[in-house]
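[job 4471] stage=fold_predict status=RUNNING
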Amino acid sequence: MTSADRVPTDQEGRRTVIVSPIRHPPLGEQLLAQLRGLIVRGDLAPGLHLVEGWVAERFGVSRGPVRDALRQLELEGLVETRKRGVYVRGLTDSDLVEFYAVRGALEGLAVREAIARLPGGDWSVLDGAVEAMRAAAEAGDPSAFAAADLEFHSGFYVIGGNRRLAASWATHRPLFAAMLDVTNTRDRDLRPVAADHAELAAVVRSGDVEAAQAALAEHLGGSRDRMRAALAEGQRSAS
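[job 4471] inference complete, writing structure tokens
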């Protein structure tokens, strides 16, 4: 018997590969998330030169993940390449207006497609997210609240079933997650925010497209304004 004969196969004769599950995000993803959060919070100030060697040593990783993270952050507009290297660009008020305009366009379409699934569709994703937000608000856990908040909004894409639209939202979701970490930490009482989400879900499930679009616009506008206030406060503290 050869070594190839001992390789396990499935019922169709294809070789199977035994692997161990990945229990933690790769180092590159963890680094990217940390850098993104630090920039959004203003802990890495605009104009800071992000030297690859310094970042690699600071976070205990090799330069490869650093280059990948900086490349992605440049795509997100948080850093920029100059003649001498990569520098923190940070978030500006104009950036926030643009980000939320894009989000509103994507999510507005997602809501329309979700409504088109009525009276069918599995709306439990919204109910579960609202309950998770309420529990996190009662526990005073802004991180858990932010995660449930994102699950709520992602639910519209899930219900609508447009994979391309969901993929577009997925590219922006990490940045909005970092923003939520900022605004939810500032909000002392998150229960009203959870209630706002429950109301938005009810309007969308009513099937009234015009009312749903108006409610979504107001909801996202409030989120944008809270982030703008946090940004302005951080800039005042830094000056």
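[job 4471] summary: Residues 209-238 form the longest helix (30 residues).
[job 4471] exit 0
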